[in-house]
Design a protein that fits this description.
Blueprint (H helix, E strand, L loop, with lengths): L10 E8 L3 E7 L5 E8 L6 H15 L2 E9 L2 E3 L4 E4 L11 H9 L6 E5 H12 L8 E6 L3 E7 L2 E2 L30 H4 L1 H11 L9 H10 L3 H24 L3 E5 L6 H15 L7 E4 L6 H7 L4
Parallel strand pairs: 1-4, 4-7, 8-11, 11-12
Antiparallel strand pairs: 1-2, 2-3, 5-6, 8-9, 9-10
Helix pairs in contact: 1-2, 3-9, 5-7, 6-7, 7-8
The structure holds zinc ion (ZN).
The site of zinc ion (ZN) has 5 residues, from loops.
């Protein structure tokens, strides 16, 4: 995969990943080579028309023969209507007829524009080009404020009726804390960066800087002690959630992205123990780091219509 200089005239599959601070976009040619990459800022209080104008202008500027367009969007996607119903971080996205608006600006048939959830396009990107390459069955897990995921089976995204494998909201503690989704004891209430920070604050760790996850992670790496035990506990919680996926679809490759995945090395023993405790038999698992960073989303989106 190399950057080639020559959007003009080349066959291109455009991918757009609209995120909390920026829309990342780019295009792949028919051989999955990157033709170009770009980014447009998406302030929280942006107007949809301005963001879409800027995105369309960047795409048009590159030229090329656009054969497909895929878009990753944060929030609850209504696939039939092609709109986002709820997007907590980007309220301006709500209800925008994305296919029509982009299609009109780019002279591209709206019905052929593919929309997908942002975690799912990142899963596709990592599976095709990143940490999950050569693993057609994998679960991509994003560790951050919450726990997001995208399931790829046989190299294809599995979305079911639309919301398949939202593992952050698997109930792992029926009497646990309330979750933002309205349920209780969801995986992300005990296995996300937010959960780790809360546990650390409750335990007064690391000493003098309770809740500082970077410092906690560094101290966990440096020596055995309560910091390492805390992250092992968070990893084990996560493993218990992943075990449900193992039991259900027998996926054995997990690719971890998101800010908190920087602690994967210290979370790993707990994750492995958690999966082993709650699934059957002797199994070999692969826990792999994501490798594409914030390019995973647009690259996965570019494969949606390819
Ligand atoms: Zn929940």
């Amino acid at each position: 995969m190399t950057n080639t200089n020559g959007g003009s005239g080349a066959t291109c599959h455009v991918g757009i990943d609209i995120g909390g601070s920026a829309a990342k976009l780019g295009a792949l040619d028919g051989n999955d080579r990157i033709l170009w990459e770009d980014a447009v800022a998406t302030p929280a209080h942006a107007e949809a028309v301005d963001v879409l104008d800027a995105v369309a202008e960047r795409v048009s500027r590159q030229g090329g023969d656009i054969v497909s367009i895929g878009v990753g969007l944060p929030g609850a996607l209504d696939r039939e209507r092609g709109v986002i119903d709820v997007s907590p971080n980007l309220p301006w996205l709500r209800g925008v007829p994305m296919r029509e608006e982009l299609g009109r600006r780019l002279g591209f048939e709206p019905a052929r524009i593919r929309l997908e959830n942002d975690a799912n396009v990142a899963a596709l990107g990592e599976c095709r080009f990143g940490g999950g390459r050569d693993h057609p069955d994998m679960l991509f897990v994003t560790l951050g404020t919450g726990v997001g995921s995208g399931l790829v089976l046989g190299g294809r995204l599995h979305v079911g009726a639309g919301l398949a494998c939202e593992i952050g909201h698997l109930c792992v503690e029926p009497d646990g804390r309330e979750c933002g989704c309205g349920s209780r004891g969801c995986l992300e209430t005990i296995a996300s960066a937010s959960a780790a920070r809360r546990f650390a604050e409750e335990a007064g760790l690391p000493k003098g800087h309770p809740g500082d996850l970077e410092l906690l992670t560094a101290q966990s790496r440096a020596a055995a002690g309560p910091e390492r035990e805390l992250l092992e506990r968070v990893g084990r919680n996560l493993g218990h959630g992943l075990a449900v996926v193992v039991v259900l679809v027998d996926v054995r490759t997990f690719v971890f992205g998101g800010g908190f995945s920087a602690a994967l090395d210290v979370l790993r023993p707990g994750i492995e123990a958690g999966i082993a405790e709650r699934s059957f038999g002797e199994r070999a698992f692969e826990l792999l780091p994501a490798t594409l960073g914030n390019a995973a989303g647009w690259m996965g989106a570019a494969t949606l219509g390819a």
